[in-house]
Amino acid sequence: PRTNASQRGASRSRAARVRARTAPGTASGSGSPSRALGRARASRSRVRIVAFDANPDPNPTRASSDGDAMPTTIDWSVVDFDADVGHAHWTRERRRETGARVRRALEAAAETRRAGRMATYDESGDEEESMERMSVEFAAEALIASGTYDADARAGLRTRATRAGESWRTFAEAEDGAAERMRRAAALDDGSESESEERAEGEWSWTRAVKIGGAAAIGGAALFVTGGVAAPAVLASLSGLGVIGAATTGVLATLGGVGAVFGATGAGLTGYAMLRRTSTEMEQFQFIPLRGVGRRFALHVFVPGFLRDERDLLRAWGAEKNQYVVVIDDPGELGMTLERDDDGYLIVQTTDALKQTVKGAASLAGVISGSILVSYRSIDPQELARSRSSKILSKKGKTPKIEELEAMPRPLELRLQLTKDEALDKKMDSLVEKMREVVLEKTIDEKDAEAPAAKPEWGNHTGEQYVLNWEPSTLTELGTAMQFVGGKYAITVAAPKVLARTALASITTAVSWPVTLLSCACYLDNPWTIARAKAEIAGEEIANALLTQQHGRRPVTFVTYSSGAFVVQSALMKLHAAGEKGKNIVERVVFISAPMSTSNKVWEPMREVVSGRLVNVYVPDDWMLLFFYRLKSVDTTLGLAGLQRVDRDDVENFEMSFKHANIPDEMSRILNEINLDE
After folding, report:
1. Of 15, 216, 451, 476, which is least surrounded by CB within 10 A?
2. Helix crossing, 422-438 with 522-547: angle to 10°?
3. What is the phi/psi pair of residue 325, to 5°?
4. What is the pTM of this model?
5. pLDDT in tens, 560-584
């Protein structure tokens, strides 16, 4: 990073002034700093916050592929905040504004810490934090607590780390640790009395404060109040915990609580339901909590474009055995039932006799009705201190009563497994048989088919990760047809150089499509057309969720492939239409084999609302994508992004080689090669 001498000098001068003000024995409003820290340590000793992770990183010390491991401390005094904190395509004004926000947040936290109003991170309390030497954990917590750590700030800091040759994973892990501490602190009452006793006496509990704070943030209120008076004891107890400190107290006062940062319900995107449109316009629309939901900071939303079977929904994104993890933090009733099926599996139901979703804590947290309950445990800090093991359920084991789960201390972690849709499986089998009747000619022999390459380990272990479950029947029908024709035909399309300078319409006409492929084209065309139309609705709903801050004020990353690109494009276009309100939400977007035009008319609006990386992964000889172009579902005169480069300096292009139907199997490798691991 470049050194700004004036900034460095100013920072050190401020540090000298603060040290002078906080010398041992100096009086303050609440006593000396040493006595304040003593009270903080005494308060912290009453409550020990235990970190937890349902999906621990199997190799947590591994540095990401985008650089060396980030140092545990950073010298921010040598950072030129006017130039170093910003993405390549940003204007100078945008860099300076973002850098100034980051600098102010870090300086304010360091000065507050130095003045003794922010408790220490370690048990000894000896660690000093300054702009010259600041731990990564302290920096991450200070930024999140400032309430200004948005997509621009995160993208700018990521760019600084890349230029310095540092891996971003260390900072991402620090973000998650800070988010976890803030959530856990928010769930703790400031005394030994139970919440019910406090409610009976009309007192204020921290849990209630967070809930009301979240609602206040949406309603525009600025303070937690009870009877017109703020709750200073609650805020003071937080500072005493040594978890968040005075910086967060400021956020609580101005933004409306932790809920303003993480979302009003605390459930992130899982609490969002498009009740207005699901039953009439879409088969299904749901954010499935894959990993880290309810505990971590940044959001990752994965949007599939087709499903070869129901397992692709989660398998493409690194899930094993079609399992997902739900964390239920809400203290209300679970709103679910448990029953054994004919095979002995314990099935969770969150719907009533009329198949209407019961509005309970389980459905709000993302439990999908009909899932198999694999294991459960309380991840309450005190419970984890006694045992971190889960209760694993077997087919012939004792069936737990729902009352047992209701009585367990929250947060409650459920590991669930999606079940097969027997009716959909039969429909797909029938579809394949119909296509076989049409395709009579000799095609690719199975022995000539390429063996699938070994899948690399899933590389994304930080942040809250969601999978969008949208139109599953249509996507499965599309994926089944893709897999069938993809395994039957080997079609040669124009060479990349020819493709780049020739109109797509001409190339599509020139390709000698097998007659029988054209005969069964309807099995591809129909679901593709439906998916294209429903994607517009799904994208609008994603944008609505983000604009109403269901996720709080956290940066979002999208990864999508094939027809799923229409969903993300629709969401970004709606964010763009919202003006300034739609900016500074989305940090990164990755399009893989996207059936979108390469024109500036498409990419310019998306570029304006994506703060950081905008990535296009393309395969020049993707004949299946070219085959779909026959439908003219894309208005383009320049080209198709999934087949060629997007000719813009602010879009990253990656040329790769894989079959369109094999994208779910290739996802880990693709994200690894474009350095999206963190």
Report:
1. 451
2. 140
3. -120, 130
4. 0.76
5. 999 999 999 999 999 999 999 999 9
